[in-house]
Amino acid sequence: MKGDNKMYNVLTLNKISKVGLSKLTDNYNVADEMANPDAILLRSFKMHDMELPDSLKAVARCGAGVNNIPLDKCADKGIVVFNTPGANANAVKELVLTGLLLTSRNIVGAYKWAQGLLGEEGIAAKVEKGKANFAGPEIKGKTLGVVGLGAIGVLVANAAVALGMKVVGYDPYFSIKNALALDSSVKFTPNLDDIYAESDYITVHVPATPETTNMINSESLAKCKDGVRILNFARNELVDADAVKAGLERGKVSYYATDFPNENTVGVEGIITLPHLGASTPEAEDNCAAMAAEEMMEYLEKGNIVNSVNYPAVSAPMVEGCERICVLSKAESMDDVKNAISGACQFNAKTRGNYGYTIADVKSADTAKVEAVDGVLGVRVIK
Q1: Which end of the chain is more exposed for a tag (fewer CB within 10 A), N or C?
Q2: Cα separation of 142 and 210, whole Å?
Q3: Residues 325 and 372 occupy one common structural domain
Q4: What domain range includes position 194?
Q5: What is the model's pTM?
């Protein structure tokens, strides 16, 4: 286990925004082909079948979702995986607001009909006669249920309030930070069934987990108002498309807008499919790339972990005149790691699931005892 280098090699697996790459200093070599990278920057490239080189210390995903990265495999090799929560939140928020209007005013149907008038005579008269077929309700005064009050959910809730909607929010993991950012008029409920019962529109903003997969299903839809409109700009797995289609047929669901088209939803009357446009703005790509680059640099240069998805968040300013020992390990090895480090000027350690991370600032780093601890997955010294 070697000490830290002053030069870092960064492999890019997708095209990365120039704004993000500009954050990297002259101490970074960047290329899209590289044998022994210290870090990887990527967007959607699927890494599951990729051989992970021994040199690799960090993987930074320019975006929030990390299902394209083998998290446990990386953790077992002492590779810290980062993501960029909130960096694309405004872009997704704007698309959700678009979805609200698309599902309300029958804009898609109206557009298609109007385009079909091409070449006909008396278009203006036909428009006046036909427009009544595309009437739809205003969103003002209606109730929006927001499932998941993270960075995106809070922005959506606040924007909906500004547009005159009543908003009910649900999140079992609601953070203090997001609570402070949430508009005070949003009604928070600890009961998901309240969202189903009260909402005219429901938008989901939670990660795809075994608990949330198909959370919008026949059972939950049965608890909803007749004519409910469902929006999914988070993860395809959250909504049971068959249940939604059945709901559309019997009038339980008026519209379903999704950013994740598939064979089960494309071309279905009442389902508006968009080609995963949530974060497809230049601003979001720039924000995500810049945030990913900064997180990667902070870890490589200072050993601080912020926004990792497979290791705990541990960070502290480095004590002047000291060297920093950074230790990635199994959670059960944390006490042994601590006992193997002597004379620490500063010591910080945390666990996350089965893995732990320790940073210790010492006058002179001797890692032999630490490296000998069973369950240690990686050791670096930063000078």
Answers
A1: C
A2: 31
A3: yes
A4: 90-273
A5: 0.82
